[in-house]
Design a protein that fits this description.
Elements (H helix, E strand, L loop, with lengths): L6 H6 L1 E6 L1 H18 L5 E7 L3 H10 L4 E11 L8 E6 L9 E9 L3 H11 L5 E9 L12 E5 L5 E2 L15 E4 L3
Parallel strand pairs: 2-3, 2-5, 5-6, 6-7
Antiparallel strand pairs: 1-9, 3-4, 8-9
Helix pairs in contact: 2-3
The structure holds inosinic acid.
The site of inosinic acid has 13 residues, from strand 5 and helix 4.
Amino acid sequence: MEKICTLDEFNHRIKKVVITKEEIEEAIQRAGKEISDSYDGRPILLVSILKGAFVFMADLCRAITVPCEIGFMCAKSYYSGTKSSGVVKITMDLDQDLSNYHVIIVEDIVDTGRTLRDIVKLLKARNPLSLRVVTLLDKPDRRLVDFKADIALFTIPDFFVIGYGLDCAEYFRNLPYIAEYNPE
Ligand code: IMP
């Protein structure tokens, strides 16, 4: 996609709202409670994968009512052709020693599942006390590898979504809701 020049074009690309701000807030409160109840008193580290999960992380951590730390990492998976096993390149790493924590990966969306499958493998090798994955969105119809998040707040059909941290060509992350992207 070319750089967006006008407000009209920006608005034109937002096809329709599929998950409202209120629905997101409600689901995050539920997930925060579930996490708080199950980790009470244990050392939690929330790990967000940049950039897409930064908004979700900011809201989810404020819905958690027990002590937790946060960490960020930037990772990209590379695949050649149709091969389903990839190489994760960490462009920004965590500074915590995971062996002291119950780690929860906070992700924006599980699509083919390859990025999270690779990141889970990588973080497991660092021997956390436990490791779980919470994702805001899940697109199971697109899955290419066997991967299931422990908590998925919303399951959506196979279309490209934007907003609430998710982008298209770096735009739309600032929308407070999830919308279907209009490619035309
Ligand atoms: P996976 O490895 O195919 O599961 O890809 C996960 C990454 O692809 C996500 O973290 C997103 O950055 C990106 N992605 C997948 N589907 C969408 C979408 O519908 N909108 C925006 N980004 C997406």
